[in-house]
Structures are given as structure tokens and as C-alpha cells.
Amino acid sequence: MKIPIKVLNWLPRIICIISILFISLFAADAFDSRLTIWEQIKAFIIHLIPSFILLIFLIIAWKREYIGGILFLIIGLVLSPIVFIHNYKMNHSLLLSLSIIMIITIPFVVTGIFFIVSHIQKKKIKTSLNQ
């Protein structure tokens, strides 16, 4: 089954945007009624730093799919064991820890793979047009 190039072009971008928005939801725990509004805003911005970094990687991937794909693959693969160990120490549940990995880090691995595949497909099409 051949995936159309337009779908292959937009799929990693859409998955990445949705994943970044999901990661950004975790910044909402910065709001605490015991803090002043300025402390809450400061904490919220600090909690959004991972989302800002992922957004920068998305911008890179948008321009250079291959490099962006490698970045997202590295992020997903490096963070998976870190997130797994952290969650396993907290809840001592293998299934819960694996499900958290599937929700948080695997979308970035999939995004990276799709960016790389999209780059390769575009390169093949460009090569076949030039011949």
C-alpha cells in the first residue's frame, strides 16, 4: 500500500502538533491558589519549557525533515527509559508505566519515523523527475 505524498507530508506535522499540545497540558499543574498571580505565570512558563523546545524541533523538522526526524527519534528513544523508570518508581506498575510511555514518548518516535520516510519519499520523487 502506497501512502500519498501529501498525507506523508502532513501526518508527522499533525501528530507532532497534537503531541506538543498534549505535553503542554501538564503545565497546568503550575496553577496553585497559594501562589500569587505572578508566581503562577512564572511557574507556568517554566513548565512550558519542554513544549517550547519541542516546538523549536518541529520548526527545524518543518524545514529539514531528515534532521527533524532524527531529533524526534532521539528525543523519543532517549526519554522513553527515563520516563519509564521515573513512573515505575512512583507506581510500581509495569503496565501503567508502559502505557505512560506509549502516550508521552512514542508519538515523538512515530513522528521522527514519518519525517524521515517523508524525506526519503520526496527525494525519490525528485530524483525520478530529474531523470
The proportion of strand residues reads under 5%
Distance between the termini: 25 Å
Query: What is the count of helical runs?
Result: 6
Extract low-pLDDT stretches.
none
Gross morphology is globular
* SSE pattern: HHHHHH
- Tell me the helix content: over 70%
- SS-derived structural category: mainly alpha
Report the major sheet. none
Average residue-wise pLDDT: 92
Rg, Å, rounded: 18 Å
How many runs of DSSP E, i.e. beta strands?
A: 0
Overview of the structural elements:
The protein has helices spanning about 5-25, 35-45, 50-65, 65-90, 95-105, 105-130. Helix content is about 85%, strand content about 0%. α3 packs antiparallel against α4 (about 65-90). With about 130 residues, the chain is mainly α.
List the helices and strands and how they pair.
Blueprint: H1 5-25, H2 37-47, H3 49-63, H4 65-91, H5 94-104, H6 106-130
Helix pairs in contact: 1-3, 1-6, 3-4, 4-5, 4-6
